[in-house]
Structures are given as structure tokens and as C-alpha cells.
């Protein structure tokens, strides 16, 4: 090997750097890390898997508690049985419509209010922002809230689901913080070109705020879908406005009471009216839509939370 070739080889070795040899401690650390996260992932997934296999397994085996890892006697009768719930289809329609409409209006209002609170020329901006933050820590309580809803005519009214949730202080603060991270030069250049505040908001701020808007959309959709208390309290005299959660709660209670009465009389076996299976099936029905939507929103969710938490 010539002298020049030796120099070239030495330079290449120096540029690439010596290979790092993992020590025993590094290998142990990686093994423990991987093992921990594998176990943690399993613990997170297993409850949902356990619920699912118990809803499609033989009800008698489920009642005896023998279904643990694999389903046995597979069937879908438990899901088909939900068709017997009165107004089941109507409750799904109410829940889906309130989730879509309520989330859309909340996202739009949060985006607009968050943008306004970033404008220093807004009338009494600091006062309104502080008033918004205070509502996160103090509330009047359940009874005054109900009396207020009653006075506004929002009891036994579909809009009782929508209007109270339009203004969400926490979401507005997230949007405000995110918008403040957008370079101000973009808005200034648009203003110089003659764009109004509304044009800046719709054409620049909203498109650039997709991550945080998708994040609060997930919050809003999950909240509206799982909402139960407002239906229970506000729609007491309007069964046609019950949400899916409320309707399934009523069904679960009626099934449990019927099973207890009939079993005490010896007219039916526990396998025929298995409240445990009913609970599992209802739980799966309520969480499946969220589990299907979240994977598509996760990328925006993580990005929005991280960027929205940079400044306060």
C-alpha cells in the first residue's frame, strides 16, 4: 500500500469515526427498556381485547369466567341484541349529530376566540382573557347550572347539547398559544397587501392551525360522544333526545333488574340474562368509534399538544 493510500484510509477512518461498541450496561438498559414498553403496551391493549373477546364468546362461558385469552363459541348475538333496545337507532342519530355539530362549532369558536385574544388592539383584551381563565377554576355548581339551563329554555331541547359546549376556555387557550407561535410576519405581509382580519384568519391562521384544531377536535368529539350527565339531567322528559350513553345506561339497568327478578323466581338461568355480558357489549359499543377515529388524528394530536405548550 502506497503512502497516499494510507493517508486516504486514515482520513476516511477519522471522518466516519470509530464504531461504538455497546457495553454490558448499555445492553442491559436497552433490554430493560424494550421489555418495559412491551409490557406497558400489552397492559394498555389487553383490557380492550378482553372486553371484545368476552362479547363474542359463549355467554355461559363468559359468566363462568373462563374466557381469558382466546374467544370460545364465537357469535355476534350480543351486538344484534342491542337492536331490541327501544329508540336505539334514534339515540345513535342524536349522539352522532351532537358530536359532529357540537365539535365543529366548538372548533370554529375556539379558533376565532383564540385568534382574537392574540390581538393587542382588541377591546379590553386582558380583561376578557382573565375572565375566560377564571371560568376554568370556578363554577356555580350543578343546581345553579340546571336552573340557568331551565331559564334559557335548554331543557328537553336538542340545543341544550350544543350551545353550552361551544365556548371551551381550555381549548381557546391552546389555540391562542399555538397562534402566537406562528410568525407575525405572515400576518403583517397579508395586512400590507390589503387583507382584512377575517381574510387573515380564514386564509392564513386557520390553515396553519390545523394541528391544534385537530387536537381540540379530538377533545370535543370524545367529550360529546361520551357525554351522559347532560342527557340524564336535561332530557328527563324527552326520551327521544336521549344520547347513546344514556339509552344504554337505561337498558343496562332494566336488564339487570329483570335478571335479578327472574333469577330469584327461578325462571331463567344466569347465562340467558347475563348482565356481565351486557356491560361488556355496551362498553365496546361506546368505545369502538373513538378507537377508530383516534389513529387518524394522532399525528395532529401530538403535534398540536407539543407546539401549543411552548408558550403561555
Report a brief summary of the structure.
This protein is mainly alpha-helical.
Describe this structure in words.
With 312 residues, this protein is an all-alpha fold. It has 15 helices and no strands. It is flat, with a radius of gyration of 28 Å. Helix 2 packs across helix 15 and helix 12 packs antiparallel against helix 15. It starts with a helix and ends with a helix.
Count of separate DSSP helical elements: 15
Q: What is the H level of CATH, i.e. the homologous superfamily of the largest domain? A: MetI-like
The CATH first-level class of the largest domain comes to Mainly Alpha
**Which segments are poorly predicted (pLDDT under 50) over 5 or more consecutive residues?**
265-273, 308-312
The CATH topology of the largest domain = MetI-like fold
Strand content: under 5%
CA radius of gyration = 28 Å
Give the proportion of residues in helices: over 70%
Which architecture of the largest domain would the CATH scheme give at its second level? Orthogonal Bundle
Q: H/E order of the elements?
A: HHHHHHHHHHHHHHH
User: Main β-sheet, in a few words?
Assistant: none
Q: Structural class per helix/strand content?
A: mainly alpha
What is the number of independent domains?
2
Tally of DSSP β-strands: 0
Shape: flat
**Termini, distance in Å?**
63 Å
Average pLDDT level: 80
Quaternary state reads single chain
